[in-house]
Structures are given as structure tokens and as C-alpha cells.
């Protein structure tokens, strides 16, 4: 035990002794019975235990355990102390006095007050949730905003290497079951490609400008579909162009593989064959090791030629039409129209849901508010509580380590792990953006509640002073 | 585009050629969990208080038992396990650990840095963490290579010819078996073991056949050695040793978690060699073993070091799940310790925290243990009532990480520091009603969370 701990426990012991002394004096004045004494002693022990637990937990590096210790043990202790104090209260010791002091004598409970309280509770719960849904809808159902979000977080030159990394990690974690050793090692090699190299490769095939343009076309197509009578979204992806770009840059792709992927150096035997001009016709062999610099001049054209052949064998279509793909995927026109209707209904709901808490609040206030003072009195706590609830909601649900991130843990069985990782990255960015907006909104609501509360307390004080 | 030619330098790890390193070291790394999981492991607090530090902590509910058969149901016709079927041995002959899937080779290639690990850059997968991991195994890799992977009698530390043939002119005679046990335990603790117990020699836990694949993975032989298990002398006692893993490292994701295990494999190689040398100098024969030769967990249970858990590992009273095990066979006769129980088995029935947390879903969620494995894996050896875990799924996580996994050990509610706070909690868990809500309390208090923040905390400590 170090000096700090010794000091802490001595201090705690001193505080306990002081508490016992205080309880003794207090209870002697109020002539307490044994039960109240038991409550008081239990309170002192539990509060001290909770504090000692918290201290020990902090030393251990477990802050949550410390907080829980205080809440659970010291909290129970405080409750026990309250019971001890309550038994000395005139309302318990003297029923006549209780009837005079009881707040229930000053305030009568009426059906309209009960209705107002119920509506206000619903308001407190629904305000953050409805604003969350509205913020989400504002982004998801705006072609411009969602496009920006996708570009900034998934496909821009800054974001795309991270997206690829996420996809790769997800593939390793969740999608490599049944892979052969060769496939596993290839996956590992892909892990060695750094951010600049990914961008260099993409610049050859599909530079950032084209990626952004395609994203805008895609989001535009979806919103046109939602707003029109079209059965399917109309989007044509020029896959042939991308394949042609890849083919035309084959001579650059091969050295990219040699420089970016950490394959081992070629064996002496292999180098000797290359020196004789014997390259063979197996692309895997040619790119499966890193040749010496002197072999590369002849090797690269040969490997590039084989790569082009491989691409031609793949028969990549010139264009891919989204509407054709969807119709071939057995998504009947009726089904698509139904989906569109559902999405549009959802869009309408998200745009208007913020009215719900306002209606609840208006209903509550209509039940009880008869003056300007009443308005302030009935607004302060609901606004403060709703704001606090909203802020907590953001912190627990929408933070990068919050509930949503946990809930998006592993990919569903029927979804490719890499695709899931990219969708998750996008959703987390969306939650973060929505969370930030909600945090600002709820902070404002909380601040308004706090101001009203402050004004109310200040008013009471002035009133007391006047009395 | 950057030039990556210098990356070849990475292949030389700590002055040891990469290939040699691959050959020598990291199979060992993988071992504790998986090797132990092959068969049994079981319960108790031994009374052995050696070196001034007892292996037991205060418990109202500890019970001693006469033998392991009183603690665990072991089939009357129990057959010894062939070491060929352990998960590491399968790396050279049986898929998916062996090819075509090649989980073992892929794991090793990443572990050694022979190929890039896609996990690099994730929390806990930094270059310094990788270096720490490799360094933590260094003594094992050099002194008792592949001992953690089950290879016996290799390297200067686990040298059977040396330790089984003592050169002392005559044997030291102890006044009693009790004195012999006391002296050996004291010496063992002094020489590096954290917990020590003495078990009788029980042939059931010795592999039916030993399997040595070291030369195969080094490319020196095409076929592994697969031979009958015959000791060079008749063992009379087995000294069971436990080594405490570092708490902070155990709670840190990635390579550091592996380093927590590796450090203890290095410790056990060193301590086993020293303790065997101690016995040799007294004129007794000894065979130091890591995960090789026999199953460590049932021996540790017999030696009173702890109880068997749902995840198939030993739970010690003092360090909980955070231990690695070794053993030394000797012809010195000593008093034996007794198996103990202190409520782990009953707690595991309700808790299931390890099974919920396991990234490979390799740990059984069954309420009750069974005599036969339901895993369909040849690495799950039947004949003992316990929770069988799925070795292939477990090793699959190692391959994905490129590092061993100890999530189950980390999240286990018994994995706590030895403080008064947890002593109080253990008392509560000792009573049946406490067990019912202990898991919920453990979660609510935030214990056992392997957070990315733990990486920074680990490196920030002095």
C-alpha cells in the first residue's frame, strides 16, 4: 500500500468517525429509536465502503467500476441515511404536524394536471427521438447531402484508402472462411498497399472526379425514381470504359503490383529463366514474386499482355444498366412501386415527425397554463429534461463507440463482409453527423430549460425577500 | 510511389533469421489455450504455501478432494489422447489447420511478419506491439522451441538427455516426502514459478503417442515423428507450475494480448530448466515440459492449482484465468497436493461470459457439460465430463489476427487483480445466490472490456 492509499484510508476513517459523532448528536437531540440508529450506522458503513471501492477501482484503472461502486454502495447508504432522517421528521413523528407541512395540502391534484404531466413525459421522450429521425431524414432524403456524405466518407481520395482498409479488415475477420492458403496470403499481401498507392491505382482506372460524378448520377437516379413515375431507377454504369482504362494502363499496373504488394523476391532459378527470356505464360507466377530491376524491362510488357488477356477472358460488359439488373433480379414492377411508396411515406413521416412533440407540449400546456407564470413553471423541467435526455441519447447511441457502432458489429450472413464494412463506415459517418446536429439542438433546449429554472428560482427568492 | 525494398529488413527479427525464427518459435506461441483444451482440466485451493506467498486466497467455500476422479467424471474406459490430433500438430497433416486452408502457415507468416498483416493499423496492431510480442516469446523460442506447440525435448532448456541423466554422484535423501515437497515448492517459486503444486504421476494425461513436427515445418523432413510415449525413467511425481500473465497486457487487444502469453511461455521455459537443474543437482531425474508430453490442465487440477472452467482452461484462486501452465516429471517422491473446488464449475454453468465474448464462437453455450464433444473435431478428446470447445474455430481467430487470442481469459469474471475489492466479490460469488447475479454485476461494473483505449493505457504505464 502506497503513501497515497494510507492517507486515503486514514482520511476515510476520520470521516466515518466524524459521521458517527454527527449521527450521535443529531439522534440524541431527536431521541431516535434503535431502528433509526441502525439505518444511520448502515448509511455510514455503506457510503464509506462505496468510496473505498471507488478509490480502489480508480487505482486499478476501472473508472466505470468506481462510478458503479459509488452509485450502488454509497447510493444505498444515502438512501439508508435518508430513512434514518425521515424517521426523525415531524411528518413521521407527529401526524398533526405532517398534515400541516405536507405539500399535498398546498397543491391539489386534478385530472387536467395528471393529463398534462403524462403529455409532458411523452414530450420529453419524443422530442429527442423525433429530432433524431428528422435530422436523419433531412440527410438521407436529400440528393445533395447524401451525395456529399458518400463522397466525403467513402469515395474521395482522402476517404477511399480507409474504406478499402476497412473492407479488407472485414474480409479477413468475417469473410475468409474456407479460403485456401494461397487466397489467405494474397489477402495479406493486399494489406501492404498503402494509402497513396491505392489512390495511384485508382487514378489509372477511375480517378476521383469520375467517382464523384458516378455517385452524383447514382443518387440523382434514385431521387428521380422516387419523385417520378419510373418503375426502376435509371442508371447506366460504363463498366467497359473502366475496363478499357485498366487494360490501357496494364504496363503501369504490373510495376504497381511489384512495388505495392510485398511479395518475396524471385528465386535465383526464376531470375535465371527471366535472364534467358523465358517468362512463361502464367500471370500468377510472373506477379507472385518481385523480380530484380534488370529483369523488369522485359518482364513487364509480357505480364501486361497476360493481364490484358485475363481481362478479355472475363468478358466485362460495356455498360451495366441498373434498371435492367433490377428487373432481372426478379424485382417485379409492382414490388418496386410498393417499395417506392413505402420510402416516400417514410420520407413524409421523417419530414413532419417533429410536429409530434410540439403537439404533445401544446396539449399539456393547454391543460394547465392559465398565465405567463404558469407557462414558465410548466416549461422549465420538461425542456431541461428533454435536453438532458437528448444529450445522453447522443452520447450513448451515436458516438463512435456508442450503441449504434456496437449494434453494427458483424455483417449479416447474406452480405459480403467487405460491402458491409463500407456500409458501416457510411452509417457511422451519418450517425456522427446526425448526432452532432442533435447535440446542438438538444443543448439549446436544455439551455432554455435551465434559464427558465434560474429565472424561476430567482423569482422565488425575490418573493421571499418581499415577504 | 515509395520504394519498399527496405521491407526485406523486417524479415530479420531480433537478429534471428526470419525462417529460423518461424521454425523455432511461434508455434509455441499459439499454445496454451488450444493445447490445454484437448482434454480435461479440473478443480480446488491447495494448501501449499511456499515461498511466503500462498497460492490460495481467502475462501469460505473451498473444498479439498481426495483425487481428480472425485471432482470430475472421467470415463472408466478413458483413452489417452494421440498428440497427432492436437490443433498444432494438425498444422502439418490435417485441414483446415493444415493445407489446403493452411491456417497454421498463414498464422505464422503473419505472426513473424513474413507477409503483411491486414490487421496492422487496427488498435493493438502497431509495429511496437508486434516487436513486444516477438520479444516476449524469445526465451521460449530459443530455449525450448515449439514447446508451446507441443514439441518435446528440443532446445537447450527442454533437453531430456541433460535433465534425465543427472551427474550428481549421489542422491540427496530428504527426511520425508513432506519435506521434499516443501523444499521443491520453495525452490520452484524462487526460480520463477508463481504457483506450484505436486501431483501424482497419472499416465492418463500423457499423450498416447508423441508427435514432433519441428523438422517438417523447417523443411528438414517430410514426415513428422510419431512415436510411442516412453519416458526415459519411471516418474514418481509431477511438479505442476503456473505462471501469472500480466493483467494489463491480457486486457489489451492485438499483439500485446499475445505478448501476455508469450512472456509466460518464456518464463516457463526458463523456470522449467532451472527447476530441473535443481533436481539434477540433488541427484534426481527430471523432464521439464511446456505444452508437450502430456496435458497440463488435468495435472494442474490434480496438483490443487485450480478448477476447470467452461472455456477449458484452469481457473486458479489467486490469479483466476490469467495463468499459463507447465510441468516437470521427476523420480523424486513427494507428498501430493489435493484437487480443490471453490465454486468455479457452478459459476461457469450460469456465467457464459467467455462464450458470449469469443470472437470465433468456439466456446460451448450449453448449460450442462457433456462426456462427448459436440464439435465434430478430432482435437476435442472425449471421455471427461466438461464443456468441449471448438478448436478449429478458436484457431481460426488466431489466423485472422495473426496473433494468439485470449479474449476468453480476459473477459472471465475470475480474471481480476488480487485486491480487497475482488476478494469481497469472490466471497459473494461463493454463495449460490451470489452466482446468480455475479455475471450481471461484472458486466454492469464494466469489467472484462477489451477496449481500444486499453492499448494507450498499456503503453502509458511506467
Give a quick precis of the structure.
The complex is a heterodimer of chains A (467) and B (462). With 467 residues, chain A is mainly alpha-helical. Chain A has 22 helices and 2 strands.
Description:
The complex is a heterodimer of chains A (467) and B (462). By secondary structure, chain A is mostly helical. In chain A, 79% of the residues lie in helices and 1% in strands. Chain A folds into 2 domains: 103 residues; 229 residues, no CATH class. Chain A is built from 22 helices and 2 strands. In chain A, helix 6 packs antiparallel against helix 19, helix 7 packs antiparallel against helix 11 and helix 8 packs across helix 22. Chain B has one domain. Chain B is globular. The two termini of chain B are 39 Å apart. The N terminus of chain B is likely disordered. At the A-B interface, helix 2, helix 3, helix 8, helix 9 and helix 10 of A face helix 5 and helix 16 of B.
Secondary structure: elements and pairs:
The complex is a heterodimer of chains A (467) and B (462).
Chain A: H1 3-30, H2 34-60, H3 63-88, H4 90-93, H5 95-101, H6 111-140, H7 143-155, H8 160-174, H9 181-190, H10 195-205, H11 208-227, E1 236-237, H12 239-248, H13 250-260, H14 268-275, H15 283-287, H16 293-314, E2 320-321, H17 322-328, H18 333-352, H19 355-368, H20 372-398, H21 403-407, H22 417-466
Antiparallel strand pairs in A: 1-2
Helix pairs in contact in A: 1-2, 2-3, 6-18, 6-19, 6-20, 6-22, 7-11, 7-22, 8-10, 8-22, 13-16, 20-22
Chain B: H1 18-24, H2 26-29, H3 31-37, E1 49-50, E2 53-54, E3 63-64, H4 68-71, H5 103-112, H6 127-136, H7 138-143, H8 160-163, H9 177-190, E4 195-200, E5 209-212, H10 214-217, E6 225-228, E7 237-244, H11 247-250, H12 255-281, E8 286-289, H13 296-302, E9 306-308, E10 314-316, E11 323-330, E12 340-341, H14 344-351, H15 353-357, H16 391-401, H17 407-411, H18 420-430, H19 432-444, H20 453-460
Amino acid at each position: 500500500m502506497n503513501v497515497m492509499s494510507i492517507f486515503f484510508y486514514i482520511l476515510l476513517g476520520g470521516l466515518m468517525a466524524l459521521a458517527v459523532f454527527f449521527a450521535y448528536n443529531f439522534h440524541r437531540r431527536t431521541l431516535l429509536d434503535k431502528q433509526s440508529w441502525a439505518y444511520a450506522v448502515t448509511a455510514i458503513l455503506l457510503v464509506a465502503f462505496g468510496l473505498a471501492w471507488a478509490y480502489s477501482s480508480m487505482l486499478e484503472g476501472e473508472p466505470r467500476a468506481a462510478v458503479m461502486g459509488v452509485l450502488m454502495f454509497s447510493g444505498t447508504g444515502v438512501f439508508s441515511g435518508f430513512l434514518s432522517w425521515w424517521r426523525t421528521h415531524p411528518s413521521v413523528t407527529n401526524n398533526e404536524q405532517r398534515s400541516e407541512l405536507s405539500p399535498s395540502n398546498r397543491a391539489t391534484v386534478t385530472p387536467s394536471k395528471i393529463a398534462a404531466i403524462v403529455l409532458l413525459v411523452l414530450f420529453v421522450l419524443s422530442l429527442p427521438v423525433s429530432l433524431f429521425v428528422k435530422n436523419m431524414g433531412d440527410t438521407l432524403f436529400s440528393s445533395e447531402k447524401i451525395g456529399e456524405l458518400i463522397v466525403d466518407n467513402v469515395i474521395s481520395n482522402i476517404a477511399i484508402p480507409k474504406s478499402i482498409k476497412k473492407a479488407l479488415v472485414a474480409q479477413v475477420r468475417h469473410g475468409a472462411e474456407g479460403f485456401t492458403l494461397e487466397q489467405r496470403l494474397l489477402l495479406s499481401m493486399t494489406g501492404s498497399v498503402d494509402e497513396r498507392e491505392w489512390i495511384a491505382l485508382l487514378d489509372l482506372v477511375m480517378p476521383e472526379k469520375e467517382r464523384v460524378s458516378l455517385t452524383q448520377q447514382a443518387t440523382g437516379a434514385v431521387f428521380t425514381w422516387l419523385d417520378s413515375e419510373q418503375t426502376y431507377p435509371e442508371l447506366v454504369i460504363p463498366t467497359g470504359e473502366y475496363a478499357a482504362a485498366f487494360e490501357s494502363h496494364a504496363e503501369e499496373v504490373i510495376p504497381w503490383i511489384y512495388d505495392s504488394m510485398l511479395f518475396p523476391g524471385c528465386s535465383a532459378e526464376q531470375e535465371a529463366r527471366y535472364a534467358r527470356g523465358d517468362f512463361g505464360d502464367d500471370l500468377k507466377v510472373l506477379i507472385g514474386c518481385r523480380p530484380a530491376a534488370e529483369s523488369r524491362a522485359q518482364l513487364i510488357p509480357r505480364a501486361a499482355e497476360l493481364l490484358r488477356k485475363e481481362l478479355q477472358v472475363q468478358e466485362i460488359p460495356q455498360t451495366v444498366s441498373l434498371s435492367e439488373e433490377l428487373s432481372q433480379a426478379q424485382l417485379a414492377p409492382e414490388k418496386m412501386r410498393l417499395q417506392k411508396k413505402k420510402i416516400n411515406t417514410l420520407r413524409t413521416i421523417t419530414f413532419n415527425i417533429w410536429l409530434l412533440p410540439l403537439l404533445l407540449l401544446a396539449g399539456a400546456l393547454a391543460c394547465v397554463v392559465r398565465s405567463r407564470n404558469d407557462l414558465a413553471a410548466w416549461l422549465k423541467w420538461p425542456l431541461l429534461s428533454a435536453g438532458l435526455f437528448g444529450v445522453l441519447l447522443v452520447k450513448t447511441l451515436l458516438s463512435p463507440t456508442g450503441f449504434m457502432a456496437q449494434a453494427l458489429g458483424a455483417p449479416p450472413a447474406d452480405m459480403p463482409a467487405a460491402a458491409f464494412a463500407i456500409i458501416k463506415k457510411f452509417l457511422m459517418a451519418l450517425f456522427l453527423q446526425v448526432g452532432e446536429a442533435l447535440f446542438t439542438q438538444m443543448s439549446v433546449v436544455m439551455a432554455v430549460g435551465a434559464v427558465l429554472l434560474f429565472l424561476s428560482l430567482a423569482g422565488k427568492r425575490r418573493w421571499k425577500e418581499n415577504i | 510511389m515509395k520504394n519498399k525494398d527496405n521491407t526485406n529488413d523486417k524479415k530479420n527479427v531480433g537478429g534471428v533469421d526470419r525462417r529460423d525464427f518461424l521454425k523455432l518459435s511461434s508455434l509455441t506461441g499459439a499454445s496454451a489455450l488450444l493445447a490445454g483444451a484437448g482434454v480435461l482440466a479440473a478443480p480446488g485451493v491447495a494448501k501449499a504455501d511456499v515461498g511466503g506467498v500462498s497460492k490460495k486466497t481467502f475462501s469460505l467455500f473451498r473444498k479439498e478432494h481426495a483425487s481428480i476422479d472425485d471432482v470430475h467424471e472421467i470415463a472408466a474406459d478413458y483413452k489417452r489422447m494421440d498428440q497427432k490430433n492436437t490443433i498444432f500438430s494438425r498444422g502439418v497433416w490435417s485441414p483446415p489447420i493444415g493445407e489446403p486452408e493452411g491456417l497454421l502457415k498463414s498464422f505464422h507468416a503473419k505472426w513473424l511478419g513474413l507477409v503483411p498483416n491486414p490487421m496492422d493499423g487496427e488498435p493493438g496492431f502497431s509495429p511496437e506491439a508486434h516487436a513486444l510480442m516477438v520479444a516476449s516469446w524469445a526465451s521460449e523460442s530459443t530455449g525450448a522451441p515449439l514447446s508451446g506447440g507441443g514439441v518435446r525435448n528440443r532446445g537447450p532448456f527442454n533437453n531430456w538427455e541433460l535433465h534425465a541423466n543427472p551427474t550428481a554422484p549421489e542422491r540427496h535423501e530428504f527426511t520425508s516426502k513432506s519435506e521434499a515437497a516443501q523444499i521443491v515448492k520453495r525452490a520452484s517459486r524462487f526460480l520463477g514459478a508463481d504457483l506450484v503444486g505436486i501431483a501424482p504421476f497419472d499416465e492418463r494425461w500423457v499423450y498416447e503417442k508423441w508427435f514432433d513436427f519441428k523438422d517438417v515445418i523447417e523443411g528438414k523432413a517430410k514426415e513428422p515423428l510419431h512415436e510411442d510415449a516412453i519416458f526415459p525413467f519411471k516418474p514418481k511425481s509431477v511438479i505442476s507450475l503456473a505462471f501469472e500473465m500480466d493483467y494489463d497486457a491480457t486486457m489489451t487487444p492485438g499483439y500485446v494480448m499475445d505478448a501476455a502469453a508469450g512472456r509466460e511461455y518464456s518464463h516457463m521455459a526458463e523456470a522449467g530448466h532451472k527447476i530441473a537443474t535443481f533436481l539434477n543437482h540433488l541427484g534426481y531425474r527430471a523432464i521439464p515440459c511446456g505444452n508437450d508430453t502430456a496435458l497440463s490442465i488435468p495435472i494442474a487440477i490434480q496438483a490443487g492449482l485450480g478448477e476447470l472452467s467452461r472455456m477449458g482452461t484452469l481457473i486458479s484462486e489467486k490469479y483466476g484465468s490469467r495463468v499459463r501452465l507447465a510441468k516437470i516429471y521427476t523420480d523424486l517422491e513427494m507428498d501430493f497436493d489435493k484437487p480443490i473446488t471453490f465454486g468455479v464449475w457452478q459459476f461457469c454453468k450460469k456465467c457464459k461470459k467467455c462464450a458470449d465474448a469469443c470472437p470465433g464462437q468456439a466456446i460451448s453455450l450449453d448449460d450442462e457439460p457433456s462426456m462427448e464433444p459436440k464439435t465434430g473435431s478430432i482435437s476435442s478428446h472425449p471421455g471427461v465430463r466438461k464443456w468441449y470447445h471448438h478448436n478449429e474455430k478458436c484457431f481460426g481467430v488466431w489466423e485472422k489476427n495473426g496473433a494468439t487470442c485470449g479474449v476468453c481469459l480476459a473477459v472471465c469474471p475470475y480474471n481480476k487483480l488480487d485486491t480487497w475489492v475482488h476478494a469481497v466479490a469472490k466471497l459473494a460469488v461463493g454463495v449460490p445466490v451470489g452466482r446468480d447475479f455475479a455475471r450481471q454485476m461484472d458486466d454492469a461494473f464494466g469489467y472484462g472490456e477489451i477496449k481500444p483505449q486499453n492499448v494507450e493505457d498499456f503503453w502509458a504505464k511506467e
